[in-house]
Design brief:
9 strands; TIM Barrel; 358 residues; alpha/beta; homodimer; 15 helices; two-stranded antiparallel sheet
């Protein structure tokens, strides 16, 4: 399963037998593996220290700083996997989009694509050659992580990336995206095909550089109805997953996807990411043995009392923790204002549950 | 089924046999009944005219202006039902909340409730006595509407109202609401009980004043997971619906509710409102004959080309239009920037489909 020639046999064995990778394969484990989406984020003092004096994009583009953000978060939380510090929008910059991150507003693209002809000004050629910092960060991070801690690479899925390219920012209604999808189906197909091709290379290179798994973030795909997903989104997700050359676990994740889960599961991924609202017990009971499952804990509950965190975590684990192939995660990323000690309570609760139940 | 003593037998018969009311009862109709959430809204020149020179709340509180907004929208669109012009937040003002509407930001409550003790400063006594304008508007509107056009009353459901009372505005993450729900279950129960009691009277008075049906808008309930919905939301919805004294159709609606639909349907409503993302054909195939269905058309598609509007509407109707008990509506309210001629194209398409298929 492992990949880079720089890994020793011992390291490869250790990673192959890690809680996270075993759970991805649906194998029983002695401890529920844990990682948290956006675990290296603004809520964490270790992250704030790394981020000091540089912009968000500068941090993404510095292999040293990205490595430090990745490793320090994994070590601080003592979680079972690291995810390389980057952003799903990073590959849009070499395509010709002017991307900036505002502290409050989030990502802003000053020259979003609008009409179908706008596609012509984008470049999809050798995009990954223009992101050497990412692969270098992966190499450095792999060297610094302990032998039994897998490193996850990632990319935005084409629908979600396209929505940013078209809307120019986080969107509420996705008006321009839906217009392009429905009124200009050929332009949509062209854009999604280009993005898929770029993403295959982008993910393969992350795996080659040292990632033991990859996650496709289709964060906003839940905006699509089933027919739109099947016709205009799923074919590209499938294409990407089947285009990965090494046999590493692939996680496919989106939010507000209850109505799409059955179809998302047919896209070929190893692990399905479950949002906060979806009835995970129902999904796991239907698909256990066929796929692994990740997520579902509501990140908003990290703002509630520790008592609530312990109760809701225990309820979740009592429901699904005994089923092989479950990876603990949130239903969406940690918010910047989340209290760190609440996150540590969450992790302690899961580990305590594992110790007494597995 | 009808109600007010001011209605003649002819009117009552005509309303009872209207397309909308028949579809609510699940009976076959010769024409798919149509109404659109927020049909009397900012996108409409008729509305802009009524709104000129008054604030949004002044419009809600003027029986004459609210009547004009309600009737002019129904007439302009020539739809099969009117919904009284008001806002779900109107009853919060006499409870002691300082409500204002900002043109861009939407509703803002300057004194939201935060801690459980904050509940004590709210009043839940004789709230409906302090909203006489609404019942007067209903009376005037009923007189002006044609005999075959039912008038729909409405209220926000308690979860959605509570979320505004707690967050003070439209929320993205519902942090304060979820903290109250989970950390202070007794305070939550008290709040939901008070709101339910107020809403029973509020809806009963709307029915007495001349409404032939009512809709409960639980717009943000989709944020809840299934367990939270069952434990902390559904009991109050059920209480309200069972507390209505006249036997008029009740529509229960929320957005992003795919994971809750099965449980929402058990709340006792006559009609389930279907959001944009839910697979309506699947829901209707499962529950047809037991309940009626409303909605599902994506309001964002009204920004696409007329060709797209015609195609997507026709696809929806080909899927579900033959099943008795379907009321055409959107999956959420019309947006302010929606082109009126696109809305008219939508309505023409549905009526053409009815003429050739029913």
């Amino acid at each position: 399963m492992s990949n880079t020639q720089t890994l020793s046999n011992t390291e490869t064995d250790s990673l192959n037998n890690s809680y996270f990778i075993k759970a991805c394969r649906g194998e029983p484990v002695k401890k529920i593996p844990i990682w948290l989406m956006r675990q290296a984020g603004r809520y964490l003092p270790e992250y704030q220290k790394v981020r000091k004096g540089v912009t968000f994009l500068e941090l993404c583009r510095s292999p040293e700083l990205a490595t430090e953000a990745t490793v320090s978060a994994q070590e601080r939380l003592n979680v079972d996997a690291a995810i390389i510090f980057s952003d799903i929008l990073v590959p849009l910059v070499p395509m010709g989009l002017d991307l900036d991150f505002h502290e409050q507003k989030g990502p802003v693209i000053s020259n979003p694509i609008r009409l179908p002809n706008d596609l012509e000004r984008l470049s999809f050629d050798k995009i990954t050659d223009k992101c050497p910092f990412l692969f270098e960060a992966i190499k450095q991070t792999r060297k610094r992580l302990q032998n039994h801690i897998p490193l996850i690479g990632f990319a935005g899925a084409p629908f979600t990336l396209a929505s940013y390219m078209i809307e120019g920012k986080s969107s509420k209604n996705f008006i321009a995206t839906k217009i392009l999808m429905h009124d200009y189906p050929e332009a949509w197909h062209t854009l999604m095909t280009h993005l898929s091709d770029v993403l295959i290379t982008y993910l393969n290179k992350q795996i080659e550089a040292g990632c033991q798994a990859v996650q496709l973030f289709d964060s906003w795909v839940g905006q699509c109805c089933r027919n739109t997903f099947l016709e205009k989104v799923a074919p590209y997700t499938k294409k990407i997953i089947s285009g990965l050359t090494k046999n590493v676990p692939v996680i496919y994740f989106g939010t507000h996807t209850s109505h799409l889960i059955d179809d998302m599961i047919t896209c070929g991924e190893t692990v399905i990411g479950i949002d906060t609202q979806t009835d995970i017990a129902k999904v796991m009971s239907k698909y256990k043995g066929n796929i692994a499952f990740q997520g579902n804990f509501d990140p908003i509950l990290l703002f509630a009392s520790k008592k609530t965190i312990i109760e809701t975590t225990t309820n979740l684990l009592n429901n699904v923790g005994h089923i092989p192939g479950y990876i603990f995660n949130l239903g969406h990323g940690i918010l910047p204002e989340t209290p760190v000690d609440h996150v540590l309570t969450l992790i302690d609760t899961i580990n305590d549950w594992s110790a007494s139940h597995l």
